[in-house]
Amino acid sequence: MLKTYQKYIIKNFFSKFFLLTLIFLSLIIILSSLEEISFTKDTNTSVFLPYFLTLINAPITLFEIFPFIFLLATQFMFYDLFRKDELSLLKINGLNNYSIIKILFLIAILIGVFNVTFFYHVASNMKFYYSEVKNSLSDDNKFLAMVTKSGLWIKDETNGKKLIIKSKNIKDNLIINTVISEFDNNFQLIRVIQSEKIDIKKNDWIVYNPIITNNNSSIIKKEKILLKTNFNYEKINNIFSNVSTLDFLKLFRLKKDFEDLGYSTSEILIHLLKLFTTPIIYSILTIISSILMINTSKSTPLFYHISLGFFVSVIIYYIMFFFSSLAISGGIPIIMSYLFPIMFLSIISIMGLVSIHDK
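^ that's the sequence the OP posted. Answer follows.
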């Protein structure tokens, strides 16, 4: 059974948390709607489409900034306790700083588990639908790249021809064991190109030792040929890097397909690590925010606290981004990309908790 002071702290924190969530959600909707209006202004679509796109894209953006909402919500809660001099009253009744932080820590863990288990599942599926709608309106709709159990598939159109490309494997800038079917605009087969190795670093692919089949006759070319496409390695990599559109089931399925294809799974693994460590990140940020507030003078203006919160948020964001980038580039093991920042922030939290023992 929760005690009265516990109920009060929980209610106080949730009121600040939901208020900040609504404020950030409103900002996301306002800013995103301007972008969507600009995107759809030259399309023959409903006037309500930009706002619909904004609404279905907003949850995943909100999920990304939840850690900073936790940090700010904790600051606002402590500021409210300072302003009403309620923290002193709680201490007179035997409640210390550790007790308050413990309550906030548990709240952060519980919300983190809920966000990863339920909120992210809904938000990622909405983001996936958002991407599908945007793609249907984009000029790139005629281009398609996807990974299945059978390998990498690419649909392309160039120079009045349609290309259906199927590759068994991808390694660095090369696709391996590739079959390219070339059609005219009426989908009449023009030729089939087979190659063991194709360099896709640039849009003009270098096809090594191709076997070209045309009118039921095959020609083996020992030299290389150039094939103009709308794809290169970087573009293909960017298509598959939008992992925020995938829920857990789709992420694990795509990871398996990438492994079968020989394609790098680094970004998927990093995204999964991010999701699994989300409750821990929430709780650590809540502790850090509490420590900052307790160690700050109670007469400090609110603007100072907000500025400090944003400053700390930016630093933590760049720390996480730096280690993620190192993992993607192979500089450190993937698991360390989140373990290092968590260990670093945990050490800061522990040192901070020791410092507030007597406050």
